[in-house]
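S., here's the first fold you wanted:
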Amino acid sequence: MTRGTGGGKVRVKTARNRSAQSTRWLQRQLNDPYVKKAKAEGWRSRAAFKLIELDEKFGLLKRARAVVDLGIAPGGWAQVVRKQAPQAKVVGIDLLPVDPIEGVAIFEMDFLDPAADALLAEALGDAPDLVLSDMAANTVGHAQTDHLRTMGLVEAAAWFAIEHLKPDGAFVAKVFAGGTDQDLLAVLKRNFATVKHAKPPASRKGSSEWYVIAQGFKGRAEKPAAGGGG
């Protein structure tokens, strides 16, 4: 149950079967101006504004012709690509089901599945000039574990970009507080002309999420063999 307050905010009462955490999340959603704006403008999620803001700052979509969206659900980023770069072919992948988006090929499967790379490449039909990743691992409540799980996805997305991008292409991925791990950051700097971190205004102030933006892909690199180490 919800009710208004004098300040125009919506206050959510704690229901019998709703946890206090769920109540706080619902109240935050109901009072989030980006959530309201997304609904009003027809975006599937408030995350659409993150890509819009990153595009305004880094010019990611102006020359995009082939785009891969990793972690596409619920589809807000793909919507932005279709609107800002209607000439671009777009493919996306996610473990979660995603309602169809006109002009977007969507695969419901694990990006880490060995078959995923070939399916995405075949569906796109050309090397991408932009790889987007808004993926994050499901949290388990242990900060270090959650960070490592998500950074594993970021690393997999980065190597997908390095193995498939056209020269001068770009890679964008969600990371968390502290930015990209140093080893991966070094790989990105070797393979891209510029590597920067940004927190778009649409990211909640209390959120630890940041984005790494790597532009000016230099060309192919060999992925190091698994195993070994010190």
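And the second, which I think is the more interesting of the pair:
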Amino acid sequence: MAAENTGAGAYAAAGVDIAAGERAVDLMKRHVARTRRPEQVTDASGFAGLFRLDTAKYRDPVLATSTDGVGTKVMLAQQLDRHDTIGIDLVAMVVDDLVVSGAEPLFMTDYIATGAVVPERIAEIVGGIAEGCHQAGCALVGGETAEHPGAMEPHEYDLAGAGTGVVEGDAILGPDRVREGDAVIAMASSGPHSNGYSLIRRIVDEADLDLFAEVPELGTTLGEALLTPTRVYAADCVALTSEVEVHAYSHVTGGGLAANLARSLPDHVDAHVDRGTWAPGPLFDHLAEKGGVAREDMEATFNMGVGMVAIVAEQDADRALALLDGRGLAAWRLGSVTAGKGNTVVEGEYRSA
């Protein structure tokens, strides 16, 4: 963030606080340092993040990239004045898309736009981003904080990120690897993750729900439950791919389980999913009840407790479940791949919590 030729005083009068931006950078440095990987190269100017790709490690390295944001979940973070976890959501939305291809996430950059730079708040946000990168095993190599007075209110902000990963050319995962008879493995979500928050905010407003009130069945306040950060699956998926025959992944985001899983299927098979293998969780039940939302709409909006799906060779299903359990990630046999037309077939009734 640099001053215009009219001088820092004129820029400050226009609403941009250069000193606050510099203090925010100082505060975030310790967070960013946690994410450093040995492949990083120092750029003394600070204008770019440099990362050396170890080509000797790969036969045919293919770079994968993804970019995303957090959506309207940031509005809840602002409403609750809680900013230390929203960055984890950002990282998860990026790196958990990357691993669907089989790629190992290498590094990320972030972009934060705000009405006014409050250094401590920016540092909290970046602290969350750094924590997400730490969980994913990737480096946070750079970013940008932009002050937009007049375009945003002082307390408002939005954030976006981009990530890069690498996968061997002959190890790219996807629909072409999926076979009839494969096992479908579910990995538990931590909640709605970062999807469906426009509907959530509508439910909160129309049902006049108190975000600060304790909800007994949730064991916390509604606001805290809704701000639970997105699960970062990247490291778990990288570990799983290295140990078992994974054919495809599906990151369950906007559109729900059925639509996202179908994206990972070829057009000659279906994935049959049994609702009876899991209970979505009390937060989803609470939202459906308070909002009067039908199951069909819930399933088309939320992950309903399944945040990532792995399609693996049938003979590796038990080993996959054991590996994920050993990593502390709840996972279960969700269903199987059968002959079909590229659809997800969801059957049965949810298990009682």
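Why I say that: Residues 129 and 298 are 29 Å apart (CA to CA). The chain has twelve helices and 14 strands.

Talk tomorrow,
H.
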